Amino acid sequence: MGEGAVLTTGANSGIGLATVLEVARRGFRSIGSVRSEAKAAVVAEAAADAGVEVETVLLDVCDADACERIVPALELHGLVNNAGYAGNGAIEDVGDEQVRHQLETMLVAPMRLARLALPAMRAAGRGRIVNVSSIYGRTTTPLTGWYQAAKHGLEAASDALRLEVAGDGIKVVLIEPGGVRTGIWDDMAGTIAEHDDSRFAASYRRSLDITRWTQPILAEPGHCARVIADAMEARGPRARYLVGSDAQALALIDQFTPTVVKDRVTRWVLRL
């Protein structure tokens, strides 16, 4: 059974909601960050239905001042950086402001939270930082380049942090899911609709069709949450956990398929 406080960001839906519930079941003091009272109510209802106790804090991870005010006071044993969003768009279809917000949310903010959690972990001589990346933290496909840039960056920063804090008894873990049934996919159609006038419009529609076809094989958020909780509890956690058969397959394909072949197949599938 766990002990100590664990903060999970983006806790009101998908992987985040499943994680705050699973962490609570394991005996940790489970805390979820949400951005509104309405979302806090969603977490409270889910916790009551599951018969566990989950606390919530109102926190926008992009608000540096709020992070600095809230996180050190929690004296965390564990941090699960989960908050994020897909943000579909070809590189030339995404403006600087959108890019900055995505990188702030999914790269700068997680490492900020880690930095703020470290003093309490170091004082305790132990701690666990679990960063939810993606199989696309290892590989890249067209039309979601900035999402993948954020995940690649998160992986690089996590690798550096893992070595920097190992001597203090703090473990840093990356979770790399494939497709998971979360709201991130429900938002995809609306995001793609914003690019109707793009030269890539047909490719966007094709990617949406592929996503719909793969819905039946997507993993449930609870599967990913169990892997996260296992990593939180393990005496010697691995640096990376691939989650889902599709993630395992994509990792193998990326490793052993020549780039020229991957490029040709991807262009043919997406009609690029």
Short summary:
The chain has 272 residues and is an alpha/beta fold.
What descriptive keywords fit this protein?
272 residues, alpha/beta, single chain, seven-stranded parallel beta sheet
Termini Cα gap: 50 Å
Fourth CATH level, the homologous superfamily: NAD(P)-binding Rossmann-like Domain
Helix content: 40-55%
For the largest sheet, list the strands in their spatial order.
3-2-1-4-5-6-7
Q: Would you report the number of β strands? A: 7
Main β-sheet description: 7 strands, parallel
Estimated structural class: alpha/beta
Helix segment tally: 11
Please identify the top-level CATH class: Alpha Beta
Uncertain residue ranges: none
Bulk shape: globular
Number of domains: 1
* Helix/strand order: EHEHEHEHEHEHHHHEHH
DSSP strand (E) fraction? 5-15%
Radius of gyration: 19 Å
CATH architectural label: 3-Layer(aba) Sandwich
What's the mean pLDDT score?
92
Which fold name is given in CATH as the topology?
Answer: Rossmann fold
